[in-house]
Amino acid sequence: MEVVCLDRPGSALIPWLEESVVLLDALRAEGQPGQIRRLDLAELADPGQINAVHGFGVAQALALAQALGELPQRLLLLGIVIDAATPSPPELDGAALLAQLEAWQRGAINPAIK
């Protein structure tokens, strides 16, 4: 497993999309800051559902990758809810994040996190 931190990657995210990928990004959405939300491509495609923090962000990069036939076989999309009014990072629910990653690795996604 390789962990890569990409700050506002835009289309530069695409070369990092290998066979199995976990994407974690800040997310403006309903919920408590620090809450982890599992997302799907359909949610990312609907701007009324999810507001990305960056202009050309994960949603646009994945749409481009899909158009190019470059989506990974296994893709887990996780967003950390942030408070739009507070620029400081939220307190992360590390246990929930770890549970999501372990479930994904086993091939079973935890439906309790949404």
Automatic annotation (TrEMBL):
InterPro entries hit by this protein: Pept_HybD-like_dom_sf, Peptidase_A31
Protein name per the record: Hydrogenase maturation protease
One Pfam family this sequence matches: HycI
Organism: endosymbiont of Tevnia jerichonana
GO molecular function: enzyme activator activity; peptidase activity
Source species, domain of life: Bacteria
